[in-house]
Amino acid sequence: MTIKQTLFATAASFALLTATSLSHAQLAPSPEWRQVLPTGPVAGAKYSDAFVKGAGKLAYIWAYPMVNLQSRFDALSQAKEAGLVNGVLPVAPVNQLAMLTDYIDPAQRVVAAPNQDVLYGQAVLDLSKEPVVVQVPDFDGRFFVYQAVDQRTDTFAEIGSMYGTRIGFYLLVGPDWRGEVPKSISRVFRSPTNLAFLFPRIYVDDTPEDKKAVQEKLQWVTAYPMSQYDRMPKKQDWSKLAKIPAASGGPSEVQWVKPENFPEDLARVVASVPPMAGEETLHALFKSLADAAANNPKVKELLKQAAIEADKDLMTPMFDFRNFGTALPENWMTVTNGAEFGADYYTRAGVAKANIFTNKPNETRYFMTVQDEKGQQLNGKNRYAITFLKGRTPPVAGFWSLTAYNKDRFFEPNSIKRYSVGTKNKDLKANADGTTTIYLQPDQPTDPAQRANWLPTPKGDDFSLYIRAYWPRVSITDGAWTPPAVKAIGEARAVGNGK
Questions:
Q1: Kind and range of the H or E run holding 15
Q2: Domain extents for the chain?
Q3: pLDDT tens profile 152-166
Q4: pTM over 0.85, yes/no
Q5: Using the 8-state DSSP alphabet, how is residue 5 labeled?
Q6: For the CA atoms of 287, 292, 298, 304, what is the dihedral angle to 10 degrees?
């Protein structure tokens, strides 16, 4: 059985168990599901060891994204002022925003699979305190999207170029907020959870001129508590953010989910994240499991062991793009329901593990691969080429890019400080026949004509490729366009000399 088949079989078994042997609902079902939902677990029900371990593994997959965001919130919400952690990561006090003024630094290890196509911002939100006002300036045609995600990692707001968002103020509110909307608020977006994150992404060309031109617009990008709203635009010079020292991490992403802490983490999630419509029974089962662990040391230990096993056997393999999503020709993969996962717990967990905080498919479509056209692992010992036919670069209304990541899904330092190519590169050169070839290798191409299209790769090590299509056209969203093959074209020259 594959990982996905095992997970679904386990889920089906638990659904049958709860439908046939448990009799008392602890959570009132949604009205539209009242007639079809089975009842939930009896309070204080006793579970066998095997059931705790089996149900615990399913609970781990289900809760993984929510525990991930809770852990990030706990760490990032400690900020006392807006600043840059170690000079690279924007942070601010809860319900406030901080922005970068240049591409994100390769040294950051907070979010895997970053990009160097946009200027990022970040705000950690606790909407139980009060709503948050989001200010959008006039970008004069420049691409932008403000992603607001709930604790499940689903996007709940529509703010960006693809939505025709206009200059103004927008309001983010929590699930229980019923207050009066202030005057001059253009639109209200309600998060299903009180914990949320906000990530503005502002496109900028990789030129000194455009990076300078965007700065004036950036000063009007902000977010703050509704209690500070006075209907007047607020301005912030983000270039003056203080550097906040912090301990440096290793080569991989910060471990946001620790399976040994899962009994406590699960209890926290089921207490703070309400069930989706139709999810009440599953939610009640996991709450019952968390309650049992809190009251019985043996159950707690079994649940912890289940989480440790699930992390190793189910979650770790999902760092590999090939183990979730939809397979495409030429060994590429994609996800078609990013940030709107619904009850697709497997894919939601996979994205949270491999490349969290993806946009919705109409905002951005992502294509990933770790293999060449023959199915061989991409490795810096070799040289590769990707050729887009004339007029067949990713069809977008926004922009596209191709990024190379090292085995930890971060940027590998290189002599020209280039980590992606695409729309932002104004010096890409087309071939005589109108095609465009990107050259992937650790060493600089010997042919001067190829150097403008060179994307450096890690030296002598495995790597992955990632295509982003921001504001994709219909030919991408309906599946008609897929990426071309990654072709091996020879061995890298004197790996590591970079000359």
A1: helix 3-21
A2: 3-72+256-315, 83-240, 322-491
A3: 999 999 999 999 999
A4: yes
A5: H
A6: 10
